[in-house]
Design brief:
The protein is mainly alpha-helical. It contains 8 helices and no strands.
């Protein structure tokens, strides 16, 4: 049986996904080797908070944003291609959840403000947008004719569950994993319907783990 020829867009998406995978795997391997040392250093209260925070921030950025950044720069793509536009801004935000968490609040000014901004950027904007990029590339590579069978959203939902260690057979872990999958899948489906990705970023800013 003759193998189906990929379109130009599918070939580009295939290459982009490989870039994202390799750009994520390299820092992941480094973290698996030195992760305990990095986290133990981060918990050393005698050290300056910035010296403890920056290595953790760089690890987070490398794992949840570096690959997407490389692809966007390599392709010279604009952010609006991924839905960072004004259209349907409020519509897509209303369809997301909000929950307020905090870090750095016990530090003195301006450390608390700067730390807060960096956390919001790396753990919120970067990670949320990373899922948008990956989902878009997967859907460009593996095209689905069913509007609800969104391969990118499905893969991102599964990846998020695995990354955050929600694997187990007890009722609480199963419920947590299912809820997480629904949130990630839902936010990406909403993005597809509204052509606006700001809601995905707001999920990670206010509901997930940034603010």
């Amino acid at each position: 049986m003759k193998k189906k020829e990929l379109s130009i867009e599918q070939k580009k998406a295939d290459k982009d996904l490989n870039i994202i995978i390799y750009a994520t795997l390299i820092p992941l391997i480094i973290y698996l080797i030195f992760g305990n040392d990095i986290m133990n250093f981060a918990k050393t209260s005698e050290m300056n908070i910035w010296l403890r925070f920056i290595p953790v921030m760089l690890v987070q950025f490398s794992l949840a944003g570096l690959g997407s950044l490389i692809v966007i720069c390599y392709r010279k793509e604009e952010l609006k291609e991924y839905g960072l536009v004004k259209n349907n801004f409020f519509k897509t935000i209303i369809l997301k959840g909000c929950f307020f968490t905090s870090l750095f609040l016990n530090s003195n000014y301006p450390t608390n403000i700067l730390g807060y901004i960096l956390i919001a950027f790396v753990w919120g904007i970067v990670e949320g947008f990373n899922y948008v990029v990956i989902s878009k590339k997967i859907n460009e590579r593996y095209i689905s004719k069913n509007k609800w069978l969104n391969y990118g959203a499905i893969v991102c939902g599964i990846v998020c569950v695995l990354i955050h260690g929600m694997v187990g057979f007890d009722l609480y872990t199963i419920f947590e994993a299912l809820t997480t999958f629904i949130i990630i899948y839902g936010m990406l489906i909403v993005k597809e319907k509204t052509n606006n990705a700001w809601g995905c970023i707001f999920i990670f800013l206010f509901f997930w783990n940034a603010i």
